[in-house]
Amino acid sequence: MVSRDSGDLDLLNPARATDPADRTGFTSTGHLPARGTVSGLLRDAHATYATLDDGTVADYIPSLAAADPSRFGISVCGVDGTSFSIGDAQEAFSIQSISKAFTFALVCEAIGHTTVREAVGVNNTGLPFDSVMALELNGGSPRNPMVNAGALVMITLAPGDSAAAKWQFLQEGMSRFAGHRLLLDVDVYESEAATNHRNRALAALLRSYGHMSYDPLLTTDIYTRQCSLLVSAMDLAVMGATLADGGVNPLTHERVVHPSVCRDTLAVMATSGLYQRSGDWLYEVGLPGKSGVSGGIVTVAPGKGGMATYSPRLDPAGNSIRGQHAIRSLSRSLGLNVFASAPEPAPAPGTQTP
Ligand code: DON
Asked: Of ligand 1's atoms, which has the minimum distance to the CA of residue 60?
């Protein structure tokens, strides 16, 4: 299939189209099932997994402890802008670590594939998202942009000479992914800013290793803000659909990032989006995903759409339990797993293959 925007690839950002292979526009994707099928499968998954009561709501950021553990919403947005939602899909919650995927995309768009890889890395740490040991074991390298240390370095690389300019770049970029202005949850921001000693320590440690080119405290503050942006599962599905749609928001039709940035972002989401559980996730779900401690998960079926869930009960790695189950089930029933294939039908007897 040839992507719709293949004609303007190198005009968008000439710096990005250094690899001639990035200019072909060929992709490897299909379509979501028919509308009625998607709606029915969403209803079934919601009813099935709403009964799961395992896991606990995050409380290390005090204001997150107030979340209602019974909330559960699922949303799917196709690359044609068609959306399907069930349950608490419009409930607003802070985006938390899911922001890391979109910050990565925006910064990658600005500074390029190779620079972000050299600055942060693209390999899983095998350790929790806030691990200090991971930094120490790797000579101060964050290893990937989906853990807190990597997300902090990505902020230092964001365009802007001041903290205000960097924050504006990120808030406006994330809002373009969602298709409307994303606002700060001031309670969550203040609660996290008052308690984020560990992130401040990570930033200081990165500085000591020479991997933090901007002020560590200002960087941590911008990171805390980006984690406190309010989204719903419906917003996340649109944001995921933008990554699935080669960087074009399917509702506003605005190009947010280059198609090759989507490819790079999905690669790091696949390897590290669910931290040390990313292998289990890929094995069960077969899609790039990103979770956050407030209970959201976004996942992307390239060329088909975005899917997101909200349910605040988490497993010990900080990933929503109902969300993981629902997405696993829907990935299979909607035919989204990128590793699943069916054999090509055998040619009819007597016909020739080209
Ligand atoms: O830095 C933190 O700890 C939070 N603002 C975000 C962590 C998070 O969402 C991890 N996700 N599962």
From this structure: 3
Q: What is the CATH number of the domain that holds 254?
A: 3.40.710.10
Distance from C-alpha of 154 to C-alpha of 144, rounded to nearest angstrom: 10
Annotated catalytic residue within 99, 223, 248, 304: 223
Q: Quick check: is 221 in a domain?
A: yes
Domain annotation covers residue 49: yes
Residue 57 is a catalytic residue: no
Q: How many domains does the chain have?
A: 1
The range of the structural domain enclosing residue 305 comes to 31-333
Residue nearest to atom 11 of ligand 1 (CA): 292
298 within some domain: yes
pLDDT grade for 18, boundaries at 50, 70 and 90 = low
pTM: 0.92
Nearest CA to ligand 1 atom 3: 130
Tens of pLDDT along 229-244? 999 999 999 999 999 9
